Amino acid sequence: MTPRVAVVMGTRPEIIKLAPVVAALGPAARPLATGQHWDAALTDVFFAGVGMPRPIQPLRGIGGRDRAGQVAAMLTGLTEWFRSDRPDVVVVQGDTNSANAGAQAAHHLGIAVVHVEAGLRSHDRAMPEEINRLVIGAVADVHCAATAGNAEHLLRAGAPPASVHVTGNTIVEATRSTLPDAARRAALQEQYGVRPDGYVLATVHRPENTDDPARLQALLHALGELGLPVLLPLHPRTRAALAASGAVVPAAVRCTAPVDHPTFLALAAGARLLVSDSGGVQEEVTVLGKPLVVVRTSTERPEAVDAGFAVLAAPGAVGTAAEWLLRPGWPEELAHRPSPFGDGRAAERIAALVLAAARVPALG
C-alpha cells in the first residue's frame, strides 16, 4: 500500500530543497503549501521551476501576518487538515514558521515527524529561525542532518542516537539539476547586461538588514564601493524597506525584480562575488565554487565559512571581506573545492527514512 506522506512547505527555500525529496518519494508524496510566502514571484514561479505541480493549499490568509499570527494560524489550520486527511508521516524542512507549525501539528496528533535539514544552530536566540529549530528538534521523530556537525548538535541536545541520520543536504542535487547549461547561462547574463566574472550578485531579505534603516543604507553603500557592477534582485520585504526608509541606492547597484531559481543560479555561476544574508545561498556557493560575503551577525551554517567559501561580515566590513575572498588565487581554489554539504544523494536517503517512519514497505 502506498503511504501518505504530507510534505509541508511555505517558502521559496523549502520548495527548492524539498523538490528532490518529493521526486524521490514519487506517488507517496502529498505536498502542502501553507502560503507563508504569498507573493507569486516567490512561490508559483518556483513550483514551476522545480517541475512540481502547485501543491494543495489548505490554509488561507497566512501571508502578511506577524510571526506569532502565522504560527498560530498555521498550527490550527494544519491540525484540522491532518485530522480530516490524516497522513502516515509529515515531512518538514529547515527552520521556517511553516516547518514549526507543521511539526507541532503532526506531533500533537501522534503522527511521525521527519525533519529535513535538522540540527542547524546559530546559538543566537534573537534569531526567529533559531527558536523554530529548537521547537522542531524537540518534537521530530527522525532527524535528517546535513552534516556531522548538525548531528552533533542534536545528540548534545538529547536526541536519541537512533533518530539522528547524516544524509547530506538536498541543496547539492537541487543546485546541480537546476543550474542551466553554459549556453543558457551566457544568454541570461547577457540579458541582465553583465559580463562573466565582472559583477557582484547580491540578495538582502533578513529583518536584521531590512528593518534597520541605518544598517540597510550602510549595506547599500558598501555594495556601491565594491568596484564592480552589482545586481540586486529585490525580495518584497527589501523593496518595501527601501520605499519606507528612503534609502539611497548607489549608481553601481542595479535593483531588479525577483528571479526564479535557474536564473539566480545562472547569475551566481557567472558572478565574481556574491553578497547575501540568505542561508540557502551559503550552501549554493559551495556547489558552484563561488566566494560569498555573508552580511549577518551569526550563521547556522559554519561549514561554508570553515571550508573557505564564505566570510561573515557587518555591512561596514563588506569591502574588507570581499578583498580577502578575492585575493589572488583564492577564487580559482574555491572553484575546485568539494561542497561540505554532501554528495548529491541526500534526497534518496531522506526518502528511505521517510518511508521507514511511515511503517510501510519501501516503494518499488
Automatic annotation (TrEMBL):
Q: What range(s) does the UDP-N-acetylglucosamine 2-epimerase domain occupy?
A: 32-353
Record's keyword terms, sorted = Isomerase
- InterPro entries membership: UDP_GlcNAc_Epimerase_2_dom (IPR003331), WecB-like (IPR029767)
- Under Enzyme Commission nomenclature, its number is 5.1.3.14
Q: Matching SUPFAM superfamilies, A to Z?
A: UDP-Glycosyltransferase/glycogen phosphorylase
Q: CDD domains this protein is in?
A: GTB_UDP-GlcNAc_2-Epimerase
Top-level lineage group: Bacteria
**Enzyme class, UniProt record, top EC level:** isomerase
**Which GO molecular function entries does the Swiss-Prot or TrEMBL record give?**
UDP-N-acetylglucosamine 2-epimerase activity
Return the similarity comment.
Belongs to the UDP-N-acetylglucosamine 2-epimerase family.
Q: What is this protein called?
A: UDP-N-acetylglucosamine 2-epimerase (Non-hydrolyzing)
Which species expresses this protein natively?
Klenkia sesuvii
Source taxonomy lineage? Bacteria, Bacillati, Actinomycetota, Actinomycetes, Geodermatophilales
| Gene responsible for this protein | wecB
